[in-house]
Amino acid sequence: MALKGQSITILGAGIGGLTAAIALARRGARVSVIEQAPELTEVGAGLQITPNGTAVLAALGLGERVARIGVPLQAVELREHRGGRLVLRLDMTQAKHGNDNPYLLLHRADLVEMLAQAARRHGVALILGKKATGVAIGFDQATLPFEDGSQRDCRMLVGADGVHSLARQAVEGTRTARFTGQVAWRATVEARHVPIHDMPRVATVYMGPGRHLVTYPLREGRLINIVAVEERAKWVAEGWNHLDDPANLRRAFSSFPADVRRLLGLCENVHLWGLFAHPVATNWYRGTTAILGDAAHPTLPFLAQGANMAIEDAWVLAEELDRNDEAEKALAAYQKRRRARTRRIVRAATDNTRIYHMSSPLLRGPAHAAMRVAGMLTPAMMLRRYDWLYGHDVTRAC
Ligand SMILES: Cc1cc2nc3c(=O)[nH]c(=O)nc-3n(C[C@H](O)[C@H](O)[C@H](O)COP(=O)(O)OP(=O)(O)OC[C@H]3O[C@@H](n4cnc5c(N)ncnc54)[C@H](O)[C@@H]3O)c2cc1C
Description:
The protein is of the alpha+beta class.
């Protein structure tokens, strides 16, 4: 089904849905995106878009725009929670993944706004304030009933409706998520309040027993993004918008270095959410409905790949729909190109928890010493560890 003139409906105007809208519209499809939120507002938080993600944005003609709103990452530093001693520094300017696109630190709201503007420029209809209450998949179309009593028949439907996806439910039934025993806080702090004058372009991970905290700069260093993860037995509902008392965050990280404590002292608006593990979807399509992004493969945030995978999915879906004559063939090819890679990424993100959170000092000491030595003796090898991830460019591979 070459895309020219084809009508496609996308459910969800998140990063995945908007990128898919641009990719499909650039190939000539007539695209509508339906979003429940009345406005495209975003949680004030940071996002890392890695070279595998910026490769797609560049191929969509958005390379310069995204570079303008992002901070290029220079280094990643892993530090001990007590005293902040350096364990490992990875100089990202030396990383050669076989993919020259930048590794950027972005504010989510800036990325969503840039994508929405690009979608509109390509003639995409963004329909806001319309909540689907289900997805019914028929032989050659899908139907979306809405909360306002209306409904829409879609010849082709892309479910980009996030972690609680109705489209995924319709494609392969309900799958239960497992609470991982971890919660995460996120906050941003204005850098002008912090006694750091020249904000380095570094992502720092402070690793403590059963907890870790990540900081990195946003918006040319005017904001500092904070993500803090703690292991705990208590269940917290999955979702992004639960406000928490900043005192709880400060208490959980009171043994961390003075700089970190000072930063946490400035947090006013703090979100807390529970981290859940979900299986990657087995089936990514049924009839003429496909799923992408968190709808297909929600992930833990420890490899910063949820949005990057959604961006990759968007490119591959548009490419396969454009090059195959039949929708069935196109969607099977899309699933084939995406499922194994996303499974590997989701697994790698889960494994990172163990590295960051070692509780026993008997294990933590030797493990940190080994990382320190490896970083000194074989820095290039440490950088190559993620070539499979960052070096992959879906716009060149097929
Ligand atoms: C703490 C944290 C840090 C992260 N950091 C990174 C990072 O650094 N890099 C990275 O790549 N990823 C990161 N991620 C993951 C990333 O944010 C998500 O994977 C990504 O936003 C998923 O995009 P999506 O478009 O699939 O889903 P979403 O962004 O969830 O979008 C889904 C959209 O669908 C809409 N919708 C849902 N249901 C309906 C309905 N019934 N009717 C109409 N509209 C509906 C929603 O309102 C929403 O706008 C992080 C996640 C977390 C939690």
